[in-house]
Amino acid sequence: MSTKNNAAPALSMSAMTKILVIVFTLNLIVEKIAQLSQAIGLAGTTDARAMLMLSFRLPHFWTGILVPVSYLVALWSASNLLRAYERARGFDLAVFQEMKTVGANLMYAGIAALFLVPTLESWINLGGRSFSVNFDINPVAIGMIGVILKLIGRRSAETSEQTQ
């Protein structure tokens, strides 16, 4: 006769995912500060205010943050999905709502990588107002997974609401 251990793990997957998001966010901040520090070092000052003012003059600094931040938001919402699943110990309406949120955030991340950032950078570089697209397989796959998760979450939530 075997006994199952139903005790929760010391650190849940949702908590570990949030810790990873925090670590990745700090890494992104350090990386962007290092980029600004190199530019500021050429100017001869290391003032934080000067770094901020320089960042406003470097639009690619900000467009380079859009996609990683959207991925981090999607990963944070995936952590919320895991937490809802851990609490429910299965699939319920809260899990389906979180699944829709994860799908939407992944979809937004894909849109940012495919359309938003290339278009903004084209406007900055070329001064035109044309629409640019970067058809790379990674953001296409991420965006499509987001669409699929959102549709599954929406349909499952509707079915769950009808049965209750």
Distance between the termini: 37 Å
Q: Sheet bearing the most strands, described?
A: none
Shape: flat
Number of domains: 1
* Average pLDDT reading: 83
Which percent band covers the strand fraction? under 5%
What is the radius of gyration computed over CA atoms, rounded to a whole number of angstroms? Answer: 21 Å
Q: Helical element count?
A: 5
Structural class, judged by helices and strands? mainly alpha
How many beta-strand elements?
0
Show unreliable segments.
none
The helix fraction, in percent, is over 70%
Written account of the structure:
There is one protein chain. The chain has 164 residues and is mainly α. The chain has one domain. The chain is 80% helix and 0% strand. It is built from 5 helices and no strands. The protein is flat. The two termini are 37 Å apart. 20% of the residues are buried. The chain crosses the membrane at residues 63-82, 102-120, 132-152.
Which helices and strands occur, and which strands form pairs?
Blueprint: H1 13-43, H2 48-57, H3 59-88, H4 93-126, H5 137-163
Helix pairs in contact: 1-2, 1-3, 3-4, 4-5
